[in-house]
């Protein structure tokens, strides 16, 4: 079995491995880690700049980012390393001295930056639009929304890809040996290769390979673990509750408000100071598409207005005009007599809250943090006080015991109630509800509607876009029927549902009832 013995001598020369081991650790491993870590850190900084440029509105920022990425991603790593390392050798010597090591790091960073920029950009762009919408509805500026929610979420999503990039840099660092590193600067591959030449067999190189695997394999597993726990969060195991149990959970909270909420609960006494809205001749268009055409409507303080109508009739757009998530083209909206068009949108949104169809909770934060984030970041309320308010609002919606759960650990109905608590925490005068039960399982709808009914009884001004005709009939003070961007009929539930006048409303009711 000569060939077996040959293979053993080539790859498993234990003595050769033992000889090279000390320098493999003290020189090779150290330098590989420095090269990879430094180029990843610099690459992350460069990549974040490129990503922000890449998603900018200005093509003068997007264009250079694109050109840079195309060049450094398109060139083979070895070409970039040689061009930078040798092309800039003289300047490098003047700045860094005789060592080519810093230029090696620079070249690796420039390559890593191009890849990391693309990773960040796709991560940030993969965050649902609703997240930024929720930030804006909670009075955050665009910058705050990006900094506090969208970018961290995007980065968390691409964490495994970033670690892959680090692993790529660990391996690419072996190419830097082309630049002629000093003996003390050799990385794992070079140490192994030099010793392989001395011993005449491949065992030192095999050992170098093992070193690469020892760095990269555990890293992949650690990052998967971290990614998983960041996504799900630490939550105590709780028994699974059925949708029916949820209805009870909320009913208990509504009829027995918890002591810590500090609220006197009496449905007969309005607790909220609802504002009024006067909408006059409101027009809105998406490009050439006229979506609202002269909508006029009066919403009295402390009343519930339900907006119904066929899909695409402009109901959501009307709501979005009321907190200026979209800007009207013409007409006006008065909030307590003052035009909202003259207000700063962030100020307006403190007074006009919004709850969305798909909840738009921040998935990386617990229910408590979801509710308190805008209190601390927008209103500047100290953390302890904000926490107290958030706990009270969560108790109001029957979720006191689930404050440390992340959205992913809550049912749709519970998530929607957190979203309502989040809107309530800002102490608004008006809350806009945009089809908030449409994404819920049937048995969870009742809990959310009961909560909304309770808010209405307590004097909150609410404008509710809904397909729940039973709710509109029971709870609304005013029902508004819209079609093709116009208010066709508005009146009491009895007038709208029992004695509709227009053919369009009759037709609509015949379809939905
Ligand atoms: N961001 C947008 N860009 C372009 N067109 C849009 C946008 N949002 C909505 N539209 C269009 O505006 C019209 C009104 O949409 P809107 O969502 O306000 O209607 P809706 O009555 O709420 O409908 P639905 O019940 O289906 O949500 C539709 O034709 C829709 O396709």
UniProtKB/TrEMBL annotation:
It is found in: Cell inner membrane; Cell membrane. The keyword Transmembrane applies. Gene3D superfamilies: MetI-like, P-loop containing nucleotide triphosphate hydrolases. It comes from the Bacteria. CDD domains: ABC_HisP_GlnQ, TM_PBP2. SMART domains: AAA. It is a multi-pass membrane protein; Peripheral membrane protein. Its main location: membrane. Belongs to the ABC transporter superfamily. Belongs to the binding-protein-dependent transport system permease family. HisMQ subfamily. This is ATP-binding cassette domain-containing protein.
């Amino acid at each position: 079995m000569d060939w077996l013995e040959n293979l053993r001598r080539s790859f498993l020369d234990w003595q050769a491995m033992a000889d090279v081991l000390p320098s493999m650790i003290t020189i090779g491993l150290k330098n590989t880690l420095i090269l990879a870590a430094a180029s990843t850190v610099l690459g992350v900084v460069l990549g974040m700049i490129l990503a922000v440029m890449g998603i900018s509105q200005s093509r003068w920022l997007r264009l250079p980012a694109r050109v840079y990425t195309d060049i450094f991603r398109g060139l083979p790593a070895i070409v970039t390393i040689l061009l930078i390392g040798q092309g800039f050798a003289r300047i490098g010597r003047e700045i860094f001295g005789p060592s080519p090591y810093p230029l090696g790091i620079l070249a690796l960073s420039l390559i890593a930056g191009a890849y990391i920029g693309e990773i960040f950009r796709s991560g940030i762009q993969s965050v649902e639009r609703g997240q930024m919408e929720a930030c804006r509805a909670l009075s955050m500026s665009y910058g705050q929304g990006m900094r506090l929610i969208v970018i961290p979420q995007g980065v968390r999503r691409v964490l495994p890809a970033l670690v892959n990039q680090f692993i790529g840099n660990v391996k690419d660092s072996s190419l830097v040996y082309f630049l002629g590193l000093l003996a003390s600067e050799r990385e794992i591959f070079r140490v192994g290769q030099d010793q392989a030449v001395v011993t005449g067999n491949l065992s030192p190189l095999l050992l170098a390979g093992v070193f690469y695997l020892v760095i990269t394999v555990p890293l992949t597993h650690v990052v998967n673990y971290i990614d998983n726990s960041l996504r799900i969060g630490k939550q105590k195991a709780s028994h699974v509750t059925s949708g029916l149990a949820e209805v009870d959970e909320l009913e208990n909270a509504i009829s027995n408000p918890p002591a810590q909420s500090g609220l006197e609960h009496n449905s007969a006494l309005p607790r909220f100071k609802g504002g009024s809205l006067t909408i006059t001749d409101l027009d809105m268009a998406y490009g050439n598409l006229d979506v609202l055409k002269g909508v006029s409507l009066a919403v009295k303080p402390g009343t519930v207005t339900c907006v119904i109508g066929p899909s695409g009739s402009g109901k959501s757009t009307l709501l979005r005009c009321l907190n200026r998530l979209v800007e009207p083209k013409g007409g006006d909206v008065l909030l307590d007599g003052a035009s909202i068009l003259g207000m700063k949108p962030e100020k307006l949104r403190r007074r006009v809250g919004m709850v969305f169809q798909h909840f738009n909770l921040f998935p990386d934060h617990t229910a408590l943090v979801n509710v308190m984030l805008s209190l601390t970041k927008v209103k500047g309320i100290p953390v302890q006080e904000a926490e107290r308010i958030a706990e009270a609002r969560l108790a109001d919606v029957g979720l006191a015991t689930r404050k440390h759960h992340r959205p992913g650990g809550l049912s749709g109905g519970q998530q929607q109630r957190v979203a309502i608590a989040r809107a309530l925490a800002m102490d608004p005068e008006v809350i806009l509800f945009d089809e908030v039960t449409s994404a819920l399982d049937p048995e969870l709808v009742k809990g959310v509607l009961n909560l909304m009914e309770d808010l209405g009884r307590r004097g909150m001004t609410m404008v509710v876009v809904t397909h729940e005709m039973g709710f509109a009939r029971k709870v609304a003070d005013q029902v508004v029927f819209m079609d093709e961007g116009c208010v066709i009929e508005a009146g009491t539930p009895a007038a709208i549902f029992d004695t509709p006048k227009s053919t369009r409303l009759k037709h609509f009711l015949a379809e939905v009832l």
